[in-house]
Specification:
This protein is 75% helix and 2% strand. It is mainly alpha-helical.
């Protein structure tokens, strides 16, 4: 059943991309819209999709997937974006996209198990240290609302948000260690990062909601892009199918929607992963809704609330049903969300700032995590390699995105360490 879920997700997502209905990469939606409106050839669209997504699959999705033995959704859906858009949009191209997408999904889940077994036979099994790549991500994630506030409103407000979030985190730590919070005789343990994150999000949306549109400056997004919203609603059945499949797969702990919840799941913290996924989903609603309304191209994961459904549902079949309902409601409410974003431009603008804040934070956290993992694999050499790799990549004009340098560096150190140990040139301390 687990394999079937992933195979079907690969097939359906590839078809959605092939028919220009939905793509996962936010940056591809406007480009797909250009093709739909006849201003971009299919060949150029396919090449653009490959250029924008392939590096992220190899440098971002796959390393995280390997480090936790849980599929990061980027691994599969960025791949199906490429598969769907490089195949022709015709009577034979769509079935081919479905077949290749299904095979790609199967390859991911089958290859993952094979990779894990392969590591046991290596001179240096670096699978466990590789898991350290994501450790700083979980802790530093709570800082992204403060960064988003600083980027959108002011550095002063960002600093205030950061300080209050940090104080709330330490207050939660004190409550947990003192046993202060009880329900009856049971001591309640708070998730300190989760509490800080919630406070930061409250600050962010409080500032955003105060920034209202000036009289007469309203764009009325719902009216301007009404045809594009209608085209998304017309395909709601497809979104319900893939939403149901992804929610079910998430409930089975086969996949995760972001590196933060993935690492929490790898540590067995499913509730904390659900809270992190919920915070991310709330923050991404303005971005996903804005790009969908403006382009007529949706995301196969919607507002990412289906991951929250999967993590909090009691079983996979309930997750399937609730996931389908949630994504149906998302699509049906798009017009109302457009009107809300039009009324509160601060909320609309926060979507892009949230995304940029998350990206900057992940760049730093993954570099630290990659360096720590590399040094665990090969003490001394690991720090040297990742530092050199990062600096050379910067001088070369960043052919590899910063976010991928840490994870790729850790994998490279693991491979190099195995080669050197096999040749007898290096000895790894036990």
């Amino acid at each position: 059943m687990e394999t079937l879920f992933v195979v079907l997700i690969g097939a359906v997502a590839a078809v959605l991309a092939n028919r220009n209905i939905a793509v996962f990469n936010d940056g591809l939606r406007p480009i797909v819209s250009e093709h739909s409106e006849g201003r971009l050839k299919r060949r150029e669209l396919g090449l653009t999709a490959f250029a924008m997504s392939f590096g992220l699959v190899i440098g971002f999705g796959i390393p995280f997937t390997l480090s936790a033995s849980i599929i990061l959704i980027h691994s599969i859906l960025l791949g199906t974006d490429i598969i769907g858009l490089v195949t022709p949009k015709n009577k034979w191209g769509t079935p081919v996209a479905a077949a290749v997408g299904a095979l790609y999904g199967w390859g991911l889940i089958a290859g993952l198990d094979g990779f894990v077994k392969l590591f046991d036979h290596l001179p240096v099994n670096f699978l466990e240290p590789l898991g350290e790549v994501g450790t700083p991500v979980v802790v530093t994630f709570m800082a992204f609302p403060a960064l988003a506030v600083a980027m959108q409103f002011s550095i002063k407000k960002g600093v205030i948000t950061f300080i209050v979030s940090a104080l709330v985190r330490q207050l939660a730590v004190w409550i947990n260690t003192s046993g202060f919070l009880k329900i009856g005789e049971n001591v309640v343990s708070l998730n300190q990062e989760g509490m800080a994150l919630i406070v930061g999000m409250i600050f962010l949306f409080t500032f955003a909601i105060k920034e209202k549109a000036e009289p007469g400056s309203s764009i009325d997004l719902a009216s301007v892009f009404s045809d594009k919203v209608k085209s998304i609603k017309k395909n709601v059945v497809f979104f319900m199918i893939i939403g149901a499949l992804i929610a079910g797969a998430t409930n089975l702990l086969l996949m995760a929607g972001d590196p933060i919840s993935l690492n929490l799941l790898a540590d067995g913290k499913q509730t904390d992963a659900g809270i992190a996924a919920a915070a991310r989903a709330i923050g991404f609603i303005p971005l996903v809704a804005s790009t969908a309304i403006a382009t007529g191209v949706y995301s196969p994961v919607g507002f990412t609330l289906i991951f929250v459904v999967g993590l909090f549902s009691p079983n996979a079949w309930m997750a399937v049903i609730i996931g389908a309902v949630v994504i149906f409601l998302e699509v049906m409410l798009l017009s109302y969300i457009a009107k809300f974003l039009d009324k509160y431009p601060g909320v609309r603008n926060s979507g892009e700032n949230i995304r940029n804040a998350m990206s900057k934070l992940l760049e730093v956290a993954l570099l630290i995590g990659g360096a720590n993992a590399s040094n665990m694999i090969a003490p001394g050499f690991g720090f040297f390699f990742v530092a050199g790799f990062y600096l050379l990549n910067e001088v070369a004009g960043r052919p590899i995105v910063r976010m991928a340098v840490g994870p790729l560096g850790a994998i490279a150190v693991g491979i190099i360490a195995n080669i050197l140990v096999a040749l007898g040139i290096m000895t790894i301390p036990k």
